[in-house]
Amino acid sequence: MLADIKGLNEECGVFGIWGHQDAAQLTYYGLHSLQHRGQEGAGIVVTDGAKLKMHKGHGLVNEVFSRGELEGLTGHAAIGHVRYSTAGGNEYANVQPLLFRSQTSSLALAHNGNLVNANALKHQLEAQGSIFQTTSDTEVLAHLIKRSGYIGLKDQVKNALTMLKGAYAFVIMTEDKLMVALDPHGLRPLSIGILGDAYVVASETCAFDVVGAEYLRDVKPGELLIIDNDGMTADTFSSPMNRSICSMEYIYFSRPDSNIDQINIHSARKNLGKELYKEFPVEADVVTGVPDSSISAAIGYAEESGIPYEIGLIKNRYVGRTFIQPSQELRELGVKMKLSPVRGIVEGKRVVMVDDSIVRGTTSRRIVKMLRAAGATEVHVRITAPPIAHPCYYGIDTSERAELIASNHSVEEIRDIIGADSLAFLSPQGLLRGIGRPDSDPNNGQCLACFTGKYPTEIYPDTVLPYEKEMV
Fold first, then answer.
1. Which of 128, 203, 288, 461 could disulfide-pair with 312, CB 3.0 to 4.6 Å?
2. Where would I find the Glutamine amidotransferase type-2 domain in this sequence (predicted)?
């Protein structure tokens, strides 16, 4: 999908490696494979056992590291980050990893997710004398670690993590350790792999394939892994709660070649398309998907229905993502630049257009209009997610209910707004079936908050916009 608002943007991607002489170079390739998760900034911090060195900047990975910067990042371990700014602004200081130096040791942090109690913790820490250098919620963890009353780093980190609420996948590095932590609900994806004698951690398993690592396992909710020259040890900082991994990882965010919780993304999306046809069949001549994340679902819809799948929309690979544009006018122009209908496929045809979500409706309306202008006689829109009617506070940039079309309009009203002949959204039950969650799991392993309004964690008042507080 083209992410039809400022929201539905990727949360961020983290990568780490310990025990390899080409740590920085491998981190570069790992971040490149996670580029779809964030395109506003990138950075790498390395350690040689004595000192942490960093380079970061705004832009894509290959833009930030375009002048030989990797050559100066020598060391046997590294962490890296690609960023979309869901919390804090896009200032240089907020680009991760964040690096903190002290007289005793240094600490680097990279984070995927969003802390719902970040503001409350900042007020508390500032009252105790902390001075924040960024507006990113990630910095909160560094202050909590430093102000912990515990002596050893492991206990300091464990104590700090227990104070955090929300979604977080952290990679933390000092001169002699790499630490990995996942929130107790497991809202964000995070996996561990091995590359020879080296350990690798990444937001998605597609990064392992790129660097040649072998998948070992997922990081468990509430788990803290400590990796150093003696190997890897596992500890916990919290009892795991009901697994609530973000459903949009399967629907939209992750690459099709990644596996999350041992479920392949491409296979899950195909199954979502099949479930969508079972729930909402339609007579048509061709099925097409909105590139790229909806292609797998469109194939599944076509297979289940027997309607031929065709490439009815072509994506221009040389245009930046529409949600990065600074104004609504430019975002709408970006849709025209980015997608083109294939007239020879859709002309004179009844078209099923499969997409992953409708957030504000701008993109869907323009795509339907383009298909009609190319000669489609009917356009039937099928969405592989339930209506997004509630804000996300865990790292997806949909924190304003007013921007969510499903919060203010019925399905029939949305159909009329986007100009489709018919419109249908997959049910929450169909979503869980398509992903492959067992009915015996009381929480089905998924966060459905943006569809149902049932949040897996407490939502703090200062996280919610004033006019939305009564709705949470």
1. 288
2. 12-230
pLDDT-derived band at 88 (thresholds 50, 70, 90) equals low
What are the residues facing 309 on neighbouring strands?
Answer: 287
- Choose the catalytic residue: 3, 8, 12, 227: 12
Annotated binding residue 293 = yes
- Does residue 330 or residue 18 have the better pLDDT? 18
φ/ψ of 214, rounded to 5, equals -105, 130
Is 206 annotated as ligand-binding? no
Q: pLDDT band at residue 464, thresholds of 50, 70 and 90?
A: low
For the entire predicted model, the pTM comes to 0.90
Q: Dihedrals φ, ψ of 346, to 5°? A: -100, -15
Respond yes or no: is residue 12 known to be catalytic. Answer: yes
The per-residue pLDDT for 11 is: 67
- Consult the annotation and say whether 246 binds a ligand: yes
Q: How far is CA 64 from CA 32, 44, 68, 99, 345, in A?
A: 11, 10, 10, 17, 40
